[in-house]
Amino acid sequence: MTSIWPSALPPASPVWFPSVMGTAILSSLFGRQVPEHGWLLYPATALMFLAFVLLIGLGAGFTVNARRNPGMFANTWRDMSILPTWGTVSMGMTATGSAIHNVGPLLPFGTAATPRAGLTDSAPADWVIAVAATLWLIGTLIGLFTTFRVALRLMEKGANHPVPAWGLAVVPPMVSATTGASLVDDVASEQLTVVLVLAVTAFFFLALFFAVLLFTLAYRSHFFYHPLPVDASISTWIPLGVVGQSIAAAQSIAAQAEFVMLPSATPAVTWLAHAYGWVALVIGIPVVAFAVIRTIYGFRERMNFTPGWWALTFPIGTVALGTAMMAETMSGPWQVIPQVVGTGSLIALCCTWTFCTIATLTAIMKARATG
């Protein structure tokens, strides 16, 4: 079976966008810690700009490559070894927009000169909102198209060997749900506010439905029929992205529930978000265990470097984000569990991001030396 991640380093294409995702979510997580640890503003800002540069650079590189190779763009939407990675383009955009939305207002030029009514002195500047909202909208449209495109391909005869990496196509709506909910406070129109809250709620359930379906098929295929290739070992971390991102999305949506229901119902919605978070964390335990085992196996078997190694970053980052958001709205002794998981995940993300960066630069230099 052909892995979704080619062993050779491909030219500029969607498969490289996980690097944008991992960089952007680390920036956002650092940005959330700035009020308690001011020095984190420096790495948060650097990572935000790096994510934006990577997004623009990879997008431009792919555009140039597509113009030089007629038919290549269309083939990426037909070839199941590439099609799901369009989900990383979507998530790269929404995650970068989220990083700008989280870190931008912490900068002197990122705050509004005249804060709007009801907002704090650190309200984001208009350009921050415009960039974040534009990236969210474009990324969401690409993500939805990719999700439904892969869902249709699953019904065809040629797609009978599903792999975890296909899950890249179903995570984008969940990311859009989280990042979209964070934009609600910046919407001036009450009508648009309600539409946005309803939309992100729909994205949450859409992604959850397709994720359960696809990953059930993928794990069934792996355990009973078609074991994963060695080079695809790290792709087993992708399901964790749904776990962590859905926790974050549930908390984000619950925080905006007052816009679509009675205020008296808000505590019940928050409770449901917490309950979902606990269930997702329990589900995440075997997911992580399997991913760790497969990753160790892959490195032991000397798997080749692929852009898919960046799957070691974003999924872990989503767990750090989801549990941190969950802990912020909890009280009591049980609060310590998501706090510990969130802190541990952030530390792990720092390590895996550094590892993937070094591995990528090393692989690129080797490819140029031998090319």
Structural account:
The chain is mostly helical and 371 residues long. Helices cover 66% and strands 0% of the residues. It is globular and about 60 Å long. 47% of the residues are buried. The N terminus is likely disordered.
Secondary structure tally: strands = 0
Mean pLDDT comes to 89
Shape: globular
Gap from first CA to last CA: 27 Å
Q: Report the order of strands and helices.
A: HHHHHHHHHHH
The computed structural class is mainly alpha
Range of helix content: 55-70%
Radius of gyration: 20 Å
Main β-sheet description: none
Please, how many helices? 11
* % residues in beta strands: under 5%
List the uncertain runs.
Answer: 1-8, 115-120
List keywords for this structure.
single chain; 371 residues; mainly alpha; 0% strand
Short description:
This protein has 371 residues and is mainly alpha-helical.
Helix and strand arrangement:
Layout: H1 18-33, H2 41-68, H3 72-76, H4 86-103, H5 126-154, H6 172-182, H7 190-224, H8 238-255, H9 266-300, H10 314-328, H11 336-370
Helix pairs in contact: 1-2, 1-4, 1-10, 1-11, 2-4, 4-5, 4-6, 5-6, 6-7, 6-8, 7-8, 8-9, 8-10, 10-11
